[in-house]
């Protein structure tokens, strides 16, 4: 049994100490080197000799290079290696840390490193090097591509992320030398990406340090004020903290438990975040201190919990059992909040020594040199599963920026824990819905999801899940993702899978439409041409630099290429003379609507209307009524106009605008809407306006969905028969 005092913050402002003259850069480097080798006692001498050789090689490679602070550049890789030595990582990782910038910043090659220090070290260093010789349009694009490269390297060797996190931690600790704008940019990137990754892999102490350091540069004034306030409160509340520590120790001793108890101070950013979220002043945040009890084994955790609840009353709803249900990063502890002396809330964490090691070092504890702890394999497996999920997202994201957006969504700080029908526990981010749950179980279940039962009751798919919910997904093989799902899903996996499906559907429909347009052009230009020789397409693709025939067809369908131009080029390559363009046969609309085929919002064409297609760049084929001003405009290129016609009737619903002027009586909207509904039309939205000139009338603007023109004419005829309706107009242009 032992008790520890609350640790003082290392960044406390205005300590008032008299400092001695600072050491010279050379002296500082010697001290850092001595500190590094003092931490290597867990390694055998041959490994230490290798590390010394790696240090000397890196020192020579970086000779003449200096950091912005004026220190020799070698001080940075040495500091990164020292952080990793604290985690007792293997020699390969420490060598890679010492050498991690030599390929990027010096003339040393990967092959040289492989020859001198072995392939694993060279691969680690390569995974840490930024992308070179590629020009990006923006910093965001470069950041996204570098992160994607790092992820792919992490998938090969998870140790890369440990080096990268240590590298970012030291960069944040020495950020003072940078310009203010660069400080903010690096701090924002750290807060958005690197701190959440540290949390996700269980590096709790590093996670909190990165948060505090980012907070310091993102909000320097708030950081200074809050830092001073915490320092003052530390002195003011010392007597209370000592009293609580003594009471906890006495109670646990009487329960005959083997334990250590210590006080801990919340990090500045978590205090600031609580003040922001709950709109509190600093004086209203009572729980800036917490206590941690470390015991021998798991049963002792629950015995300790019972003893503490007998000492101070627990606050209802403030107990969490992360031992029975660990967090996604492997974290385990019992959390409880008690009513302490004078009504002060006391937060207490209870855990075993193994749980404490995992809580502090996370996945790094798995690589502790010659670790034989079997349960650490679980941490390894969890991180591999997380990385695999990120790789799945990566493979389906269109570009690096979109991928990074998904990753930021996926790096969640808080989880809800829900159950499958078979009792399996899934961790999802706060705000997750049944759609997120379905994709977390399996991609196919998410793709074909139609309904969800939460705790045995059918609930909407946008319902927010809560910890403890039992979720069952109802699927239908004929169902597919709805674009509206993107407005409420929470996980990166669900978002990327939905977008991937929608893009694939768009592409396939664009290819089909492009093929129809091209065939139509061929029928006019060379009606007796016969089959297209394959070499015709091969030569054409080579000429224009496209990868495939489908890519060209999709471009035609999306309006990026004109079918007539492509048809003429293909026929020329085949040696077939093209006829003049005239009288194209009409394309039959099949009732499908996608980004490859749109219905004009200017005239809302319906089956039964005379229509024409306008090929518009980036939109593909847009269907208009034949007298719409968008197609009758003399500036329209005739080659962009395509004859189209309606297919036989289908059950598809089409949007149409209807404007009604009616007497401004009570219940007028309900009466008009009832007539519309009686004709099986769907009201998408409705907007009412009053006339300034005619106050007795109201202007009702409907957006309806009907099957065809005949159905709309029936609705208009019945509305005209109502005495309260003065006029009706189908909305055009």
Automatic annotation (TrEMBL):
<dbReference type="InterPro" id="IPR003607">
    <property type="entry name" value="HD/PDEase_dom"/>
</dbReference>
<dbReference type="InterPro" id="IPR006674">
    <property type="entry name" value="HD_domain"/>
</dbReference>
<dbReference type="InterPro" id="IPR004811">
    <property type="entry name" value="RelA/Spo_fam"/>
</dbReference>
<dbReference type="Pfam" id="PF19296">
    <property type="entry name" value="RelA_AH_RIS"/>
</dbReference>
<dbReference type="InterPro" id="IPR045865">
    <property type="entry name" value="ACT-like_dom_sf"/>
</dbReference>
<dbReference type="InterPro" id="IPR007685">
    <property type="entry name" value="RelA_SpoT"/>
</dbReference>
<feature type="domain" description="HD">
    <location>
        <begin position="73"/>
        <end position="172"/>
    </location>
</feature>
<protein>
    <submittedName>
        <fullName>Bifunctional (P)ppGpp synthetase/guanosine-3',5'-bis(Diphosphate) 3'-pyrophosphohydrolase</fullName>
    </submittedName>
</protein>
<dbReference type="Pfam" id="PF04607">
    <property type="entry name" value="RelA_SpoT"/>
</dbReference>
<dbReference type="InterPro" id="IPR045600">
    <property type="entry name" value="RelA/SpoT_AH_RIS"/>
</dbReference>
<comment type="similarity">
    <text>Belongs to the relA/spoT family.</text>
</comment>
<dbReference type="Pfam" id="PF13328">
    <property type="entry name" value="HD_4"/>
</dbReference>
<comment type="function">
    <text>In eubacteria ppGpp (guanosine 3'-diphosphate 5'-diphosphate) is a mediator of the stringent response that coordinates a variety of cellular activities in response to changes in nutritional abundance.</text>
</comment>
<dbReference type="InterPro" id="IPR012675">
    <property type="entry name" value="Beta-grasp_dom_sf"/>
</dbReference>
<feature type="domain" description="TGS">
    <location>
        <begin position="414"/>
        <end position="475"/>
    </location>
</feature>
<dbReference type="InterPro" id="IPR004095">
    <property type="entry name" value="TGS"/>
</dbReference>
<dbReference type="Pfam" id="PF02824">
    <property type="entry name" value="TGS"/>
</dbReference>
<feature type="region of interest" description="Disordered">
    <location>
        <begin position="1"/>
        <end position="24"/>
    </location>
</feature>
<dbReference type="Pfam" id="PF13291">
    <property type="entry name" value="ACT_4"/>
</dbReference>
<feature type="domain" description="ACT">
    <location>
        <begin position="657"/>
        <end position="733"/>
    </location>
</feature>
<dbReference type="InterPro" id="IPR043519">
    <property type="entry name" value="NT_sf"/>
</dbReference>
<dbReference type="InterPro" id="IPR033655">
    <property type="entry name" value="TGS_RelA/SpoT"/>
</dbReference>
<dbReference type="InterPro" id="IPR002912">
    <property type="entry name" value="ACT_dom"/>
</dbReference>
<dbReference type="InterPro" id="IPR012676">
    <property type="entry name" value="TGS-like"/>
</dbReference>
């Amino acid at each position: 049994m032992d008790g520890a005092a609350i640790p003082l913050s290392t960044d406390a402002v205005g300590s008032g100490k008299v400092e001695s003259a600072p050491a010279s850069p050379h002296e500082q480097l010697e001290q850092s080197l001595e500190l590094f080798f003092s931490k290597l006692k867990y390694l055998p001498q041959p490994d230490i000799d290798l590390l010394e050789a790696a240090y000397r090689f890196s020192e020579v490679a970086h000779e003449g290079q200096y950091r912005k602070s004026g220190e020799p550049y070698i001080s940075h890789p040495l500091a990164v290696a020292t952080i990793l030595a604290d985690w007792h990582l293997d020699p390969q990782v420490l060598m890679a840390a010492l050498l991690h910038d030599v390929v990027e910043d010096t003339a040393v090659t990967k092959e040289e490193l492989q020859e001198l220090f072995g392939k694993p070290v060279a691969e680690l260093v390569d995974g840490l090097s930024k992308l070179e010789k590629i020009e990006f349009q923006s910093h965001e694009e470069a950041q996204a591509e570098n992160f994607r490269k790092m992820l792919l390297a992490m998938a090969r060797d998870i140790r890369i992320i440990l080096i990268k996190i240590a590298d970012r931690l030291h960069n944040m600790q020495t950020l003072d030398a940078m310009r203010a704008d660069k400080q903010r940019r690096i701090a924002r990137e750290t807060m958005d990406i690197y701190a959440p990754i540290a949390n996700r892999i269980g590096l709790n102490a590093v996670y909190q340090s990165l948060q505090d350091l980012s907070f310091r540069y993102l909000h320097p004034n708030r950081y200074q004020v809050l830092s001073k306030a915490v320092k003052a409160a530390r002195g003011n509340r010392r007597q209370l903290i000592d009293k609580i520590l003594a009471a906890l120790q006495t109670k646990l001793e009487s329960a005959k438990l083997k334990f250590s108890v210590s006080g801990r101070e919340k990090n500045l950013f978590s205090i600031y975040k609580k003040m922001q979220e709950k709109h509190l002043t600093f004086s209203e945040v009572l729980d800036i201190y917490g206590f941690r009890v470390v015991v021998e084994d798991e049963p002792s955790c629950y015995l300790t919990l019972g003893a503490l609840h007998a000492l101070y009353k627990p606050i209802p709803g403030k107990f969490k059992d992360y031992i029975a249900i660990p967090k996604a990063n492997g974290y385990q502890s019992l959390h409880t909040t008690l009513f302490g002396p004078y009504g002060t809330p006391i937060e207490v964490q209870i855990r075993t020594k193994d749980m404490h090691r995992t809580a502090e070092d996370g996945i790094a504890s798995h690589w502790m040199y010659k670790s034989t702890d079997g349960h650490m394999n679980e941490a390894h497996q969890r991180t591999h599963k997380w990385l695999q999920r990120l790789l799945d997202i990566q493979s389906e994201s269109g570009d690096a920026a979109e991928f990074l957006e998904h990753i930021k969504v996926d790096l969640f700080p808080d989880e809800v824990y829900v159950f499958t029908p078979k009792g399996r526990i899934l961790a999802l981010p706060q705000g997750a819905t049944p759609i997120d749950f379905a994709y977390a179980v399996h991609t196919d279940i998410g793709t074909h999801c139609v309904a969800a039962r939460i705790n045995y009751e059918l609930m909407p798919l946008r319902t927010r899940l809560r910890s403890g919910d039992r979720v069952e997904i109802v699927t239908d093989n004929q169902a597919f993702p709805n674009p509206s799902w993107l407005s409420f899903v929470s996980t990166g996996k669900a978002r990327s899978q939905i977008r991937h499906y929608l893009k694939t559907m768009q592409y396939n429909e664009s290819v089909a439409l492009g093929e129809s347009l091209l065939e139509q052009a061929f029928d006019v230009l060379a009606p007796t041409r016969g089959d297209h020789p394959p070499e015709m397409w091969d030569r054409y693709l080579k000429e224009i630099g496209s990868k495939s025939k489908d890519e060209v067809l999709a471009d035609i369908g999306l309006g990026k290429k004109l079918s007539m131009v492509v048809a003429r080029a293909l026929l020329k390559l085949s040696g077939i003379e093209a006829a003049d363009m005239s009288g194209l046969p009409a394309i039959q609309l099949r009732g499908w609507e996608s980004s490859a085929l749109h219905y004009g919002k200017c005239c809302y064409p319906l089956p039964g209307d005379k229509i024409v297609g306008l090929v518009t760049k980036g939109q593909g084929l847009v269907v208009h009524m034949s007298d719409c001003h968008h197609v009758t405009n003399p500036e329209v290129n005739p080659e962009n106009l395509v004859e189209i016609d309606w297919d036989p009737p289908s059950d598809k619903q089409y949007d149409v605008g209807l404007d009604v002027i009616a007497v401004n009586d009570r219940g007028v909207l309900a009466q008009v809407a009832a007539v519309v509904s009686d004709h099986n039309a769907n009201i998408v939205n409705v907007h009412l306006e009053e006339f300034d000139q005619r106050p007795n009338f109201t202007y009702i603007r409907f957006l309806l969905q009907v099957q065809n023109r005949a159905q709309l004419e029936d609705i208009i005829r019945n509305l005209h028969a109502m005495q309260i309706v003065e006029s009706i107009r189908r909305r055009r242009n």
